[in-house]
Amino acid sequence: MKLFNIKYTICVAMAAAMLFSVGCKKDYADPNKASANNVEKTAAGLTGLVTGVHRTYAATRAGSIYNQITTDGFLSNQLSILNQGNTAEYQFFQGGDKVDATNTIVLSFWINSNKVIFDANTVLKNAPSLTDKNYASGLIAYASIFKALALTNLAMFWERLPDTTGVGVPVNFTPNTEGYTRALDVISHAIATVTADTISPAFRGGIPAGIDIVNTLHALKARLSMYTGNYAQALAEANLVNLSARSTFNFDLVTLNPIFETATSTNNVYQPIDSTMGLPPALAPDLADKREPFYIALSATNPRYRLSGFFAGAAGPIPVYLPGEMTLIKAEAYARQASPDLVNAKAELNKIITKQPASDPFGVGAGLPADNTTYTQAQLLDQIYRQRAIELYLSGLRLADSRRFNRPVSERKRNFLPYPFQEHDNNGSTPADPAF
């Protein structure tokens, strides 16, 4: 289904001008949009607003999906640059201090994430006032998904993030770990809401197809619980996710898959670095691993390694999360709990290793024999990281994983991004850029 082009949605260039004329006040108001009474106080207006949030997050090179996958792919060594004229991507490929505050992807990612949060907050503020609580439940759940994703992106890629968005309000910066906690609170509230008031079919029929709202809420809560160290909750939430279900950002021939549109179709920006998927030799994929040809196509002409999988087609959907992530969260939760349960952790890990592509709703499967090696906790965590890196290739999660699993710094090109220079220039509270 086409992602609707809502009139209120502001292009990134306009948002940049408006945002950074006032620093981090985050005033995204559009003087051409309908009045607040029409947009922010009615079911139809709020549905249009939250659909616009979806589009802002998912569509085009300016959206969060392109920014997240591209930034993560380069900084965790998954991608190789093809044309150095793509300056922002080339800076990421070089890494280190070559990635500076003038980088246009850094700016776009920052603006896009904060705009998603700002607009989602408008929905979350006004939806509870609707008379139809089942419709309101859908609005709250849907807006919460995008707010949580945006907060998580800020937390994964910046050391500190703004503690609020709004017009004329003071802004402070908090540690990135608080971003995960805030996102977790948003998702937990949404789950409580949909549990109390089932989402109405009328709401589901008014938004783009693809996202399985309830499964996505539990999947994100499992992910965020893992990031915040609540392993029992991560395990419980992962167990609530239907592993046969698909939850996707859908595209069509008008609103294209953003990675295909920019990288795959042009073959002039970036492609996979090689068949190692950017992993060191000890963790590289087995030659017989069926996920390798799923994600990476081989060509007789240069570049030899090419994007495939979720980025092979103009209208190809991109998963919001992969079922395999939930199984690997279970493995990690068992391995990291106070009294590590390495038996169950290994059992969950082997579910990923032995899974056939036909058994996965997206066709992602290694199809390998079970791993019968006896591991220590540290060794097992290395293998869980390895399988996350392969199973979730180019999902935008590896940089955060690399830090979480204490991988060598040499395996990444930066730990965190600098803050956009416009933020530095207009907001005195902006922290100093990280050294790496």
UniProtKB/TrEMBL annotation:
Keyword Membrane found: yes
GO cellular component, one term: cell outer membrane
PROSITE patterns, A to Z: PROKAR_LIPOPROTEIN
Subcellular location: Cell outer membrane
InterPro entries: SusD_RagB_dom, TPR-like_helical_dom_sf
Predominant localisation class: membrane
Keywords from the UniProt entry: Cell outer membrane, Membrane, Signal
Domain RagB/SusD, first and last residues per copy: 323-426
Protein name as it appears in the record: RagB/SusD family protein
Species the sequence originates in: Niastella yeongjuensis
Classification of source organism: Bacteria, Pseudomonadati, Bacteroidota, Chitinophagia, Chitinophagales
